[in-house]
Structures are given as structure tokens and as C-alpha cells.
Design goal:
The chain has about 350 residues and is α/β, with parallel strands linked by helices. The chain is built from 14 helices and eleven strands. It folds into two domains: about 180 residues, 3-Layer(aba) Sandwich (D-Maltodextrin-Binding Protein, domain 2); about 160 residues, 3-Layer(aba) Sandwich (D-Maltodextrin-Binding Protein, domain 2), CATH 3.40.190.
Length: about 350
């Protein structure tokens, strides 16, 4: 989804996976299956075929665009899923609302390969429900041929000088998070006055925006259709390959550090297969293949170290976060229900 330019290639690979899945994976007629939901272009499609061949379990693979759409689909009860890969704060919400199965780690021995930095985090402090998959930051990406002064602050997204050329994330946590950081507040604030101040800033920004978008940010910035927007830092490397005028910074006010992790939702009819799939995805050779395809850093420490050695200094700086930048990052946390309700009301007003 993020890379329309290479979408045909990816679709062909995925169609091959689906076709194999319909035949029962590596062992035709086995009837074993696992339903996986992931972010768009967040996996090397060839690893799905490898899993099918090794385990004889068919992978039915689908994608989602935001944590909120995934949550709504699962909460609505009409979604067939065995493994889903949401972000930190959404995992915490799902745990609180009893939407996830506890994992049987006897089936996931490769969890020992996960970097300790990404275990015991606030969203799953006892490591009972999730296994980290990918980690990264949100960056601010701009076209240096069109914006000639270096950009260092989220303030550029609220600058009338760029009216009509600015893109913004089309989901409340990310959009409000950026506004809150620019104002000097925590992305996880529960202070309603601070959130309303961020809302006022976003209302003013709406007048100079080109669009609220998600994955379309990728294509619009590559083509020069827009000049500046926030996006997931590792994707910058693919974007830069197509448009060397693009630049990416982590703003001085700080940014979001995210951890996307694999979980098994309640209602899964194939929990054992799901845990085999999670274990497979953590394996070093598979984690490395996925990093080479999507650039996002794996939570597998061994694979991440190998991949870091393969990158040049610029690539390494984008994919991996140094201590100075890491100190200025925040991980989204699950917020109290009254604050979630406030976000829903304000977001509806903003987007109406």
C-alpha cells in the first residue's frame, strides 16, 4: 500500500501466496490455516511461502491501515483473525478489554531473541500477550528542492508559508500527538486543556493543509505533489531512492517511538498455528529477510545487528535511533476512556 510504484510486484507475490494458501500450503490438503492481519507492505511476501512450505499451514494474509480500523473490526466481531500486528497503545487497550489470548511461549521459543529493550514495556509489562515485531520512529519528510531552508521542527507543518503543500496523518493519535509535541506537551497527556489547545492548533492547520492522508503520504511526497508531511522514518529510504531531493528529520521537539507486536485475538480458531507463525517471524533469518524488504528495524537483536552492518551511515541513522534521538521519543500509551472519548469528539469536529 505504501509503495504504489512497486505495488504490482508485491501483489503478484501476494497472489502467489494466496494461491498456495488455497491449495493448503506446502502440504496440499492439510486443511491447516492461519489468518494474519498486518500493516500494508510490512513483510517480505516470500516469507509467507517459506512458512507454508515448512509448516504445511496456509497463510491467509490481509492488511489494515490504522490501529483504529483494526480495533473496530475486531471489536465488531466480523473479522476472522489469528495473528494481528497492532501498535503498543492499541495492544494495551486490547489487553484491558480482554480482547487477546495469553500466549503459550512453549510454542514461541524464539522469543529469547527479542532485544530486552523491547520487552516488559508499558503496554504488556509482564510479556504475556505479545511478541514485538518491528520498531521505529515517525519522521518529518520534506522536499529540499521546494523547501530550501532546513526543516528542524514540527512547526513547519503549521507554517502558512507552505499552505496547500502540507500533509497530515489521518488518525487522531498521530495528528494530536504531533500538535502536542510542538506545543511542548506529552503525546500521552491527560490534561484536557492541553488537548484542546492542540485541537485549536489543528483547526488552524486545517486551513493550510493539502490533505489528511495515511499511506498516500508516500506517493505524494515522492512525486512532488506535496512538499512536506510526517511519515514512518524507515519508509524514507525507499522514498529517497525514488526522489533524492527528499530529506527526513526527527524534529527537535521529539517524536513517536513505536513498537508493533504480534498478538492473538480472542476468537482465533487456530491459536497453535498462530503461535507457530509468531515464532517463525521472530527467527533470525526471517527477521532479517523482512528488514531487507521493508527497512523497519526488527525487535530481534541478532538480526538487527546484522542488518545494521549492511547499511551505510545515512541508512543506519534513519532505521536505528541513536541515544540522543531516543531520549526525545515517546511511546504512545493507552489513555483513560474519558480522554479517548474526548479525542473522538474533537476528531469528529476537526474532520467534519
Amino acid at each position: 500500500m505504501k509503495r504504489t510504484i512497486v505495488l504490482i510486484v508485491v501483489l503478484c507475490l501476494l497472489l502467489a501466496v494466496f494461491a498456495t494458501g488455497c491449495r493448503g500450503g506446502g502440504r496440499p490438503g492439510s486443511g491447516e490455516v492461519v489468518y494474519v492481519h498486518n500493516w500494508g507492505e510490512f513483510i517480505d511476501p516470500s516469507v509467507l511461502r517459506i512458512f507454508e512450505e515448512e509448516y504445511g499451514i496456509s497463510v491467509i494474509y490481509r492488511t489494515f491501515e490504522t490501529n483504529e480500523t483494526l480495533y473496530a473490526a475486531l471489536r465488531g466481531g466480523g473479522m476472522v483473525a489469528d495473528v494481528v500486528i497492532p501498535s503498543d497503545y492499541m495492544i494495551a487497550r486490547m489487553i484491558e478489554e480482554d480482547m487477546l489470548y495469553e500466549l503459550d511461549f512453549d510454542n514461541i521459543p524464539n522469543v529469547s531473541l527479542i532485544d530486552p529493550r523491547f520487552r516488559g514495556l508499558d503496554f504488556d509489562p509482564e510479556n504475556r500477550f505479545s511478541v514485538p515485531y518491528k520498531v521505529g520512529t515517525v519522521g518529518l519528510i520534506y522536499n529540499s528542492a521546494l523547501i530550501t531552508e532546513p526543516v528542524t521542527s514540527w512547526g513547519a507543518l503549521f507554517d502558512p508559508a507552505f499552505a496547500g503543500e502540507i500533509l497530515m496523518f489521518d488518525n487522531p493519535r498521530d495528528a494530536f500527538g504531533i500538535a502536542l509535541l510542538y506545543l511542548g506537551y506529552s503525546m500521552n497527556t491527560t490534561n484536557e486543556d492541553e488537548i484542546r489547545e492542540a485541537f485549536d492548533l489543528l483547526v488552524a492547520q486545517r486551513e493550510i493543509l493539502q490533505a489528511y492522508v495515511m499511506d498516500q503520504i508516500f506517493e505524494k511526497l515522492i512525486s512532488g505533489e506535496a512538499w512536506i508531511g510526517p511519515y514512518y522514518a524507515p519508509d524514507f529510504l525507499t522514498m529517497y531512492a525514488y526522489n533524492p531531493d527528499l530529506r527526513m528529520v526527527r524534529p527537535v521537539e521529539g517524536t513517536n517511538f513505536f513498537v508493533d507486536a504480534m498478538v492473538v485475538p480472542r476468537g482465533s480458531q487456530n491459536q497453535h498455528n498462530a503461535e507457530l507463525f509468531i515464532n517463525f517471524m521472530v527467527r533470525t533469518d526471517i527477521a532479517l529477510a523482512n528488514m531487507r524488504f521493508v527497512y523497519y528495524a526488527s525487535a530481534n537483536a541478532e538480526a538487527a545487528a546484522i542488518f545494521a552492518d549492511e547499511l551505510d551511515p545515512m541508512q543506519r541513522e534513519v532505521v536505528f535511533v541513536g541515544p540522543e534521538d531516543y531520549a526525545k521519543t515517546e511511546v504512545f500509551r493507552h489513555l483513560p476512556q474519558n480522554i479517548l472519548d474526548l479525542y473522538d469528539r474533537l476528531w469528529a469536529d476537526l474532520r467534519s
